[in-house]
Each structure stands twice: as C-alpha cells, then as structure tokens.
Amino acid sequence: MNRRTWMKTWGAVTPLPLLAGAAEKSRSNTVDVEIYRLKLRHTWTTTMASNDFRDEIQLRFTSEGITGHGEGAPIIRYKEDAVQNKAAVEAVRPLLTSADPRQFRKIIDEVFKQTQGNFAAKAAIDIALLDWFCQKQGIPLYRHLGLDSKDTPLTTFSIGIDTPEMTKQKVKEAEPYPILKVKVGLDKDESTMEAIRSVTKKPLRLDANEGFKSKEQAVEKINWLEKQGVEFIEQPLPAEMIEEAKWVRSKVHLPIFADESVLHPEDIPKIADTCDGIVVKLDKSGGIHEVLKMIDTARAFGKKIMIGCMVSSSVTITAAAHLSPLCDYADLDGNLLIANDPYSGVKVVNGKLILPERPGLGLVKA
Questions:
Q1: Is the dihedral of CA 14, 15, 16, 20 positive or negative?
Q2: pLDDT digits (tens, 9 = 90+) for 171-180
Q3: What distance in Å separates the CA atoms of residue 302 and residue 164, rounded to the nearest whole number?
Q4: What angle do CA 231, 289, 241 make, to 5 degrees?
Q5: pLDDT tens digits, residue range 72-82?
Q6: CATH architecture assigned to 143-365
Q7: Which residues contact residue 210 at a Cβ distance below 8 angstroms, ignoring those fewer than 6 apart?
C-alpha cells in the first residue's frame, strides 16, 4: 500500500471514532424516583420513635433497555427524610442521564462530590447502578463481588419494643427464625426480656439504639442482660459518648457492636476501642461501595461485622444480602416487617439468606 492509498484508507475510517464519540455524548438514560410509603405489619417502636409506616425513595435507572433498581430509607436520626433524598437525586439527574453506567465508580464518586449528606439517596443511586451493570453482564451481584452464595449467614428477626403480650405474640410469629434481635433501651427492658423468655429460649441479639444514658447504667444493664442468653448488644450509649463507651467495654464481657457511632469508613479508627464489632448499613453509609470500604477497614482493626438494615423493601435487603458472605452476622429482615413489599428477591429459609441466581440484584416485581 503506497502513502496515497494509506491516506485514503485512514481518512475513510477516521469518522467512525468521531461518530462513536457523538453517540456517547447523546446518551440518554432515564431516571425515575418516587417517595414510597412502607406500611409496617406492627407498630415499630425503638428508643428513637414509634411508627406505623416509613417513607423512603425507590429509584429506577434505565439504559439500553435494562432497568436497575435502587432504594434509600432515610431516618430522622441521621437528619434525613424522603423529600430531601428525592430532591438530592433530582439534583444529580443530568449526571445520571448522560453518563455511561459501565463507569459506575466514576459516577458514584461524582455523586458524592456533588451531594452533601443525603446518604440514603446516594445508596439508592449506587444500588441501582450496580444492579444495572450486573444485569448487563448477565451475572448476580454476588458473583461480580467474587463471593460464594453458600456463605450467607443466618439473619435475625427483629422484635420492636411493645407491651409484654404483644411481645409474646411477635415472638410466636417469628417461629421460623432461629435467632431474634430485640430492641431495648427503655425502662421496660426487664418486662420485655421476661416476656420473651417466657415463650422462647432462642439466642438473642439486642439493640439499645443509644438508649442507656450513662456509663454506669450501661454496665449494670449489660451485665444483667448477659445472664439472659444474649449474644451481643448494639450501641448501648449515645454515639458522641466515645470515652464513656471505652470505659463500658472495659467493664463488661458481652460483646458490643457500634452502629450509630460508625457511619462511614473514617469513623472506624475513632471508635475502634469502644467495641468488638461494627454494624454496616447501605442507607446510613451511602451504598454498596462505601460498605465494602467499611468492611475492609473494620477487618484491619480486627473487628467483627454485622450487616444490618433500616425498614426497607426487598430492593435494599437483597442488595445487602449479596454482601452478607463478607460478614459474620446479618440482621436483614426489613422487608419482612412490611406489608406492601413491591419486589421479591432474597429469601429466608430456616433463618439462612438464600440469594437469587438471576442477574443483578435478582429482583422480581411482586
């Protein structure tokens, strides 16, 4: 081929990359976000509040004929609500509609740069993009993460604070679940434990939700609870009481897990001396990628990991379940507490999380 022929051939093919570039610039993904009201099967009471429903956001990201689903469940404890989170998604809509979803890490990083707070909204975006990507690749999310679906742990089933009679009824309804998680932290802890132990001897994991207000009270309560067949307790003291939490840990034998005091990876070094493990949640941290960072950081400090949840639908619960093989414990029952789950995904059989084998999160519309 002489130089003139080569130049003609090169000139004939140069428009193709330009056309491809133009096509990328004209990309038009669609983003649908709505506030969705989750209706609880029972009034849900913790030390923070009592609710019959929870408002959250459902997000659908569509590109190339594939729709990825995401969800964010904000709570007032973290100064977030559904209206604010929906607005946060709307604010980054231009980014989401024009970006290549194959570059999901780049998109998520930019979302974090552009968005202050609103971590539930960030989680919804992160989950939806990974659901889309894994569907595009034709693999379940857990395979994308290099995990084995057989390694999922047992999940607890949560019992909110209630009257002794209602507590007994809730425990009986939870018969299929071998481990219970019980909310404590109010002045009725003794009657709650008495009611539960009158109907079951199952292992218990407790969550005080910052309910003990002094280090002395925390030690007294924890030492008493240890005698009730409790495996560990979450967040006995308010999150800001870090020095007091260190003292409590030195005075008790029952393992302590940090929750409200550890929201992001950078929090872990600050609270490492206060606990034996941490609770990771997609909504409070900002999604799958942030939780993966937290797991790696906590492991470096020798901590156990429990993956937990807010009251959520099967979207977030299934996303979290795909990560559960990385964790020691799971508390993924948020979808089991509601009466209007819009999707189905992860299943629970004798307490064990069974992951879907369908691509992405593996959701099916209910």
A1: positive
A2: 999 999 999 9
A3: 38
A4: 50
A5: 999 999 999 99
A6: Alpha-Beta Barrel (3.20)
A7: 47, 185, 235, 236, 237, 238, 239, 260
Q: Chain-wide mean pLDDT for the chain?
A: 92
Q: Where does residue 316 fall: left (phi above 0), alpha (psi -120 to 50 degrees), or beta otherwise? A: alpha
Q: Under a CB-based contact definition with an 8 Å cutoff, are residues 9 and 306 in contact?
A: no
**Residue at token pair 């057989």:** 150
Residues of the chain with CATH 3.20.20.120: 143-365
What pLDDT sits at residue 26? 55
Residue-level pLDDT at 329: 98
**pLDDT exceeds 70 at position 63:** yes
CA torsion 279-281-285-289 (nearest 10°) is 110
* DSSP helix/strand/coil, 236: coil
Which amino acid, residue 95? L
- What is the number of other CB atoms lying within 10 angstroms of the CB of residue 166? 16
> What are the residue ranges of CATH 3.30.390.10 in the chain?
25-138
Q: Lowest-confidence range among 47-56, 155-164, 188-197, 230-239?
A: 47-56
pTM: 0.90
Q: What percent of the chain has pLDDT over 70?
A: 92
pLDDT of 45: 78
- The three-state secondary structure class of 147 is coil
* Distance between CA atoms of residues 345 and 295, nearest Å: 23
Token pair listed for 39: 């209706």
Q: In sequence order, what are the residues at sequence separation of 6 or more whose Cβ sits closer than 8 angstroms to the Cβ of residue 88?
A: 115, 117, 118, 121, 122
Q: What contacts 201, CB < 8 A, 6 or more positions away?
A: 229
Q: Band of the pLDDT at 28, cuts 50, 70, 90?
A: confident
User: What CATH number matches the domain at 25-138, 3.30.390.10, 3.40.50.720, 3.90.1310.10, 3.20.20.450?
Assistant: 3.30.390.10
* Cβ-contact 31, 60 below 8 angstroms: yes
